[in-house]
Every structure is written in C-alpha cells, then in structure tokens.
Amino acid sequence: MKLIALILCIAAQAAFSGDGDSARIIYTKSFPGSSPDYVSIAVERNGAVAYKEAVDDDPEKFQMEQTSTEVMFDLAARLDHFKHPLESGLKVANMGVKTFRWEDDGAASEQKFNYSLDENAKALHDWFEAITDTERLFAELKRAARHDKLGVHEALINIENCWVQKRLTGADQFLPLLDQIAQNEIYLHMARQRAAMLGEAIRRSKAKP
C-alpha cells in the first residue's frame, strides 16, 4: 500500500508540474537586419530539437544531451511555464522580439519580450542562443566540407572554440561529419587532425559518468 501511495504521489506531482512526456519548449526570435533575422527552435521533453531559420523551412533535427534538456525544462518550470510577463519595460535598444512558448497535452502559454531582467529568462535565452550558434557552425562546416576544402580548418577551429566554452549543443550531430573529414585525404592534414581530436573529445565526454 505504501508503494502504491508513493507512485500516486509522484504521478500527482508530475501532473501538477505540467511537465509531461508531450511537453515542449518553443523559442522564436525575429530581428530584421541581424543574422539570422529569424530563428525557431522547438525542444521536446525527450531532447529532440528542431531548428529552422525561416518559417517555411524544413527544420534541422538533432538530439540534445539529456542533462542540457533537463536544465532547460527546469528553467521553464522556474518561469512558471511562461504564464507571467517577462518584459522588463526598460527603455533599451531593440534586441529582437523573442517568444518563449510552452506546450503540453493541448495546453499552451507564451510570453514575448525584448529584454528581461529575470535571471531564469536570461539563462534560458542563453541556451537558445547557444543552440543557434551551434547550428550555424554546423551549417558552415557542412558548406565548407562540400565547397571550400581550404575553409574546413577554420570552421573546425570555430567549432572547437565553442566546444571549449561549453556552448556546443547536441554535439553528437557533428560526429559523422568529423569522421568523414578525419578519414578523407582531400582535406588538409591539420584539418583532418583537428577533426579527429574534436571527435574523440566528444566521444570521451559521452563516456564520462
């Protein structure tokens, strides 16, 4: 009976938190004149991410690390799943219209803001900026690998810097391309070495407890 009561208690807490398996966080940013001038990122509770830079784009999809996903959903919970205003109201420069949206089992809530003083909102926004930076680095590496063999090494340096700063999200998505570069002699030797080292670093990080 105690076990049944415990299970019911946990289920009730999960329902109360509004954070079920179907939950997802959607972030959009519209900032004409910037690069990119639009971005949409959807993060599912299981860590699946869909990223796009135009409303009618087919999204790039990858898997976020479990710990990163948990941090983002915890921040959303701290923000009461975006049921309260986040805009600071201060007279600051236009930094783009940002939207946090929460969806879970048919329920939805969202907030738009230019600038927020809420530390949790700042932290969650930074996660989405890191995803944006990562996907643009990934796109640049793919472009260089196909069309600019000499530019591959510089693209790898930028990715490595992002990795060192612990801002590379969904790092597994890079592994097939890094392996391809490391094993193909059409690329510069130093690019092949850097690709191999970066791939090994990503794999080692996965092996850590």
Describe the structure.
By secondary structure, the chain is of the alpha+beta class. The chain has one domain. Helix content is 47%, strand content 18%. It has six helices and six strands, in the order H-E-E-E-E-H-E-E-H-H-H-H. The protein has helices spanning 2-17, 66-78, 119-147, 152-164, 175-182, 189-207, and strands at 24-30, 38-44, 48-52, 60-63, 97-104, 107-113. A hairpin with a 3-residue loop joins strand 2 and strand 3 (48-52). Helix 2 (66-78) runs antiparallel to helix 3 and helix 3 (119-147) packs antiparallel against helix 4 (152-164). The longest helix is centred in the middle third of the chain and has 29 residues, at 119-147. The protein is globular, with a radius of gyration of 20 Å. Mean pLDDT is 92; it is low at 1-17.
Keywords:
six-stranded antiparallel sheet; 209 residues; 6 helices; 47% helix; disordered N terminus; alpha+beta
What's the arrangement of strands in the largest beta sheet?
4-3-2-1-5-6
Mean pLDDT: 92
**Which blocks of ≥5 consecutive residues have pLDDT under 50?**
1-17
Assign a percent range to the helix content: 40-55%
- The end-to-end span amounts to 35 Å
**Per DSSP, what share of the residues sits in E-state strands of 2 or more residues?**
15-25%
- Overall, the morphology is globular
Number of H- or I-type helical stretches? 6
What is Rg?
20 Å
Protein structure class = alpha+beta
Strand runs, count: 6
Q: Characterize the main sheet.
A: 6 strands, antiparallel
